[in-house]
Amino acid sequence: MATAELVSSKLVDFLNASPTAFHVVDEVKRRLKKVGFEQVLEREDWNLELGKKYFFTRNHSTIVAFAIGKRYVARNGFRIIGAYTDSPCLKLKPTSKVAKGGYLEVGVQTYGGGLWHTWFDRDLTVAGRLIVKEMKDGSVSYTDKLIRIQEPIMWIPTLAIHLDIYALAKTWLNTQSHLVPILATSVKNGPIDAKFKIDGIKSHDKKIIDDRKHHSIFLQTEEICDFELQLCDTPQSIIGCALKEFIFSGRLDNLCMSFCSLKALIDSTSFESSLDEEIGVRMVALFDHEELVDKAIQQSFLVSADMAHAIHPNHMDKHEDNHQPKLHGGLGIKHNANQRYATNAITSFIFREIAERHDLPIQVIYFSAKDYISLSNGLC
């Protein structure tokens, strides 16, 4: 298998293992530990050694991994790639129980800048984390458990064409009232099938969470104290199109950059001598909520790795003639006169120089103020 095909296949595996930011971090942890990275805790003192590799997490949705050069001394810089673990989605509201018209529905809230009309008529399920009460040595403790129901248990049906005079113009969409998934009908509401039971958690009649807030399918056991769940697709990510050039998947923005950043760090530290001549710290920071800290360290260089929207063949007017991001065009350097991106002449030069030394194609991407107005109005 060609190198590009092999990397694409590994990216698809990463996407399929990562329906939520919590799952992303769990998968990244697994991969880092496999190649010798040691976990450290923010609340403890660190005893770091030159030439060693470490990582820490925050809120189970952010992870920072770094490798310390053997020639590193205090005040030497960091070489950082920043990406993020979250993607636009529908998250369950704090009170998600909705019942109307003979249906059991689930109250959700939009997260991020999604194309919400595309969520209709999808096979949907839920994934996220549970806060679970456990008994250990006679005392109560609380822990996180990741959950992902594989079967489609929800659906947001499109209104029948006969009743929808705005079917071709989705400007009518009200995310509060129209984007509400159906869970079941009231008539069939009853004991939940065992296939939705959560592994490792015993079933009880008593519920810790108020069942007036959520449907019983989410409250099957006494041990569940709280949860953060979101909707996600059940179909797997795949490589498709006639010549197998495209990845059909949600969450590409920005899990693709999370994957590439992780791979770069692992590959660049994979040999015993990888850090012998390194004077800095190689670091990857994968944040939830795009929470990059707006801080510059004088001797450091940060690459904020994000996705770019390639030119759409049916909407070519959305890009200027001289700035049309193209597939196969290479890595994009994003510019904006109002500094919506941090790119300047120096950082752009360094990036281009690195690309040239490694024979990597690059292309310049420019977004004007007009583009951002259109984006903020949901027009493109």
Number of strands: 16
What would the average pLDDT be, to the nearest integer? 82
N-to-C span: 37 Å
Strand fraction band? Answer: 25-35%
Strand-pairing-aware structural class: alpha/beta
Work out the helicity level.
10-25%
Poorly predicted segments:
191-195, 203-208, 293-297, 369-380
Lateral strand order in the biggest sheet: 1-2-3-13-4-14
Total helical elements: 5
- Computed Rg: 23 Å
Oligomer: single chain
SSE pattern: HHEEEEEEEEEEEEHEEEHEH
* Morphology call: globular
Largest sheet descriptor: 6 strands, mixed
Pfam families: Peptidase_M18
Keywords: Aminopeptidase, Hydrolase, Metal-binding, Metalloprotease, Protease, Zinc
Family: Belongs to the peptidase M18 family.
Protein name: Aspartyl aminopeptidase
Explain what this protein looks like in three dimensions.
It is a single chain. This protein has 380 residues and is of the alpha/beta class. Helices cover 17% and strands 28% of the residues. The chain is built from five helices and 16 strands. The protein has helices spanning 3-16, 21-34, 252-268, 345-357, 369-376, and strands spanning 38-39, 53-58, 62-68, 78-84, 89-100, 103-111, 124-136, 139-148, 182-185, 224-233, 238-240, 246-248, 281-287, 301-304, 331-335, 362-366. The strands form five sheets. Strands 1-2-3-13-4-14 form a six-stranded mixed β-sheet, with helices on one face. Strands 5-6-9 form a three-stranded antiparallel β-sheet, with no helix packed on it. It has a three-stranded antiparallel β-sheet with strand order 8-7-10, covered by helices on one side. A hairpin with a 3-residue loop joins strand 2 (53-58) and strand 3. The longest helix is centred in the C-terminal third of the chain and has 17 residues, at 252-268. Mean pLDDT is 82; it is low at 191-195, 203-208, 293-297 and 369-380. It comes from Dendrobium nobile. One of its GO terms (molecular function) is zinc ion binding. Pfam families: Peptidase_M18 (PF02127).
